[in-house]
Amino acid sequence: MSTDAIVLLKNDHKEIKKTFNAFRKLGDGAHKEKGRLVKRMIELLTVHTYIENEVMYPRVRELLPEVEDDVLESYEEHHVADVLVMELSMMKPTDERFTAKTTVLIENVEHHIDEEEQEWFPEVRAGLSRKTLQELGAEMLQAKKKAPKKPSQPSALKKTIDAVIA
Ligand SMILES: [Fe+2]
Ligand SMILES: [Fe+2]
Predict the structure, then answer these.
(1) pTM of this prediction exceeds 0.90
(2) What is the distance in A from the centroid of ligand 2 to the CA of 52?
(3) Which of 19, 97, 141, 151 pairs as cysteine with 41 (C-beta 3.0–4.6 A)?
(4) 95 CA to middle of ligand 1, Å?
(5) Is 91 left (phi over 0), alpha (psi -120 to 50) or beta?
């Protein structure tokens, strides 16, 4: 099985987008299904952000200084998503702002995924060897095993906070 870092991350993106599209299809009400989907969305995003923050972003920044600005912008976008995810995780699907907040999260993350896939992952693909990308992917699979699944777990926020505030 390929452990190419970019392939792995794009597969995650596909899973994440599935929950977005399913959420959009739900009508008003549908609270139970909305709650279930948002819980799944939050888990996928928490794990994905963690492996990018822990492995992909710092290693790419170190190996490819020319994409550093993109990595820094991406950290900021993770931070915005983290805040929304944290707030959503404390809300009930019946809360007045639940759907609005989920919609804003979806819009933000879709924009972020597009920037990764269209703008700087191609530069990473061009700039790093296949072997390095395989190694990065293998490291991310390892990191996934200990990744937090809930935003309330301290390790979920730490790296982004370090990158954004430090
Ligand atoms: Fe990201
Ligand atoms: Fe990503």
Answers:
(1) yes
(2) 7
(3) 19
(4) 28
(5) beta
CA of 143 to the centre of ligand 1 (A): 15
Q: Which residue has the tokens 């061009």?
A: 126
Tokens 């926020």 found at: 157
Q: How far is CA 143 from CA 69, 105, 115, 124, in A?
A: 24, 24, 23, 20
Q: What does the pLDDT profile of the chain (166 residues) look like in tens digits?
A: 689 999 999 999 999 999 999 999 998 889 999 999 999 999 999 999 999 999 999 999 999 999 999 999 999 999 999 999 999 999 999 999 999 999 999 999 999 999 999 999 999 999 999 999 999 999 999 999 999 998 888 777 666 667 676 6
Residue 9 burial (C-beta neighbours within 10 Å; 0-12, 13-18, 19+): buried
Q: Are 18 and 3 in contact (CB under 8 A)?
A: no
Type of residue numbered 56: M
